[in-house]
Amino acid sequence: MRKDIKIKPLIIMLVFFLPAGFIRGQEKDINKLFEEEIQKETKPSTTESKDFTGRTSQFQFQSFNRNVYVDIMGTVDIVGEWDKNTPHNTRNETYVRSAELGLFGAIDHLATGTILFATHYEDGILTTELHEGYFLFPATLIPRTNIRLGQMFPDVGRLNVIHEHDWPFTTPPLVHKELLGEEGLLDTGIEFRYLFPWSFWQELSIGIFNGKGFGHSHGGHSHGGHSHGGHSHGSSDINPFRDLDQLLEEVILHENQPIQNITFDSILHYLEETQKCKNILNLSQPEKIDCLVEKYVEDQMDAMEAKNAQKTKQNPLLTAHLKHFIPLSNYWGTEFGFSYLRWHPEISPKKWNNQYGFDFYLKYKRGKLKSFVWQTEVWYRETKERPTNRLAYFFDENSNLKTTLQEYNYQFDPPKKIEVVETKAGFYSFFNYQLSEQWFIGYRYDYLTTPTFKKINYFTLIPEYKRNGMVQDNIILTYMASEFSYFRGQVSTTVDIEKNKRTWEYYLQAVFILGVHPAHKY
């Protein structure tokens, strides 16, 4: 019993004092480990590190156990363009069309970031702007879904998501320039991409954007007297036919006469009285018509811009793109898709655009020496509105002129129905064949038209459908020294169908890329 009594105090001492000593020793070890970790974090990493996608970065360092990397890309696109047309369709000079500087990297475990600045000429002045800047969330709570948030080129069509310096030709297709913008559609918003869980590859992209400006342009030029530039910085189309409708309505109300009693001189006198065209009666007949069409429309444009400057457009741009990829063999593959866009071109919610697109891409590649590409896009746009006063309501169902002013006044009350006021359509088809490891030859056919285009017959003052549009043939020869530089020559000939006039343009292009060159999707 006495031995047990002596042992018990020893056990109690061990229970109380040994853990305390052990804990004190452990605290010393933990503090030492913390000091070692801090020393490691303050030193630059000498080992290769990768982001969560497994990609090795160019510039990387460690900060508090966080692997930070940034990829840097710089590009310069030099273009020389010439023509002998009157007036000129090109700048007839060599210039740096654009220079870009991009930063790409992982922000954290949730997202990567893209920042891309572009320098280009805008009306002869070198300007720098943010080209793209967005989050990319590669994984979300919804399986097979990623999200882009920020300023970007929306995923519609084939060419819109590819930067201009990476295009396989020097100039944009006519339909792309007219319906998406010279370089493409650029806007700020959010875009969702969902990969369907089928046995074949199918992806759906849906985007919601500001819609305040449609199209992205770097000061493009017109071809054959027709402007094909996108609507940059929120400007709106002015329809001469629509504005002449308004002019005729003004004259009818001013003269208090039906349309059959309105003569061309009546319109000229009205323009003189209202000082829309000064001294118009002293001008020659072509100059009178020039004033009637151009100067009056210009006056309407100024009034619209002044009105729009006081308002803010609130209607968003909605986009959707359904894509499919089908591997045909080890060397052949195809991707095709369907696009949809909806937006309001003006502040008024009574007018909106629906645009539909189809893109097709067929590729053959066997090693480095042989490849073939067929790329096509088709676009169709219809502009709808709930109309107010339009010339169409001066006619009955049989296209006969109404005879009483009361009928006109009755028709001035806006109808309830929705009508298509304008349509635009076109396509391009591009073929590119690899001659050798570094030489490629291509051909591109462009077509653009306005199916609803009408022109006023100044003798009858009745609108008539006119055959119109542009057809363009392009031959492209490319020498690709490597993935990071290439040189290209392009010859283009354009036919203005309405004027039956052909023009020729010649282009030389040189592009180089420094740093990383992000891979494009198939």
Can you describe this structure?
- The structure is a single chain.
- With 522 residues, this protein is an alpha+beta fold.
- The chain is built from six helices and 19 strands.
- Helices cover 20% and strands 41% of the residues.
- It has a 16-stranded antiparallel β-barrel with strand order 2-3-4-5-6-7-8-9-10-11-12-13-14-17-18-19. A two-stranded antiparallel ribbon has the order 15-16.
- A hairpin with a 5-residue loop joins strand 7 and strand 8.
- Helix 3 packs across helix 5.
- The longest helix is centred in the N-terminal third of the chain and has 40 residues.
- The chain is globular, with a radius of gyration of 32 Å.
- About 11% of the residues have low confidence.
List its salient traits.
19 strands; alpha+beta; Porin; two-stranded antiparallel ribbon
What is the secondary structure topology, with strand pairs?
Layout: H1 2-41, E1 59-63, E2 66-82, E3 93-106, E4 112-122, E5 125-137, E6 145-152, H2 174-179, E7 187-195, E8 201-209, H3 240-255, H4 264-273, H5 285-308, E9 317-327, E10 332-343, E11 351-366, E12 370-385, H6 405-411, E13 419-434, E14 439-449, E15 454-457, E16 462-465, E17 470-482, E18 485-496, E19 501-515
Antiparallel strand pairs: 1-2, 2-3, 2-19, 3-4, 4-5, 5-6, 6-7, 7-8, 8-9, 9-10, 10-11, 11-12, 12-13, 13-14, 14-17, 15-16, 17-18, 18-19
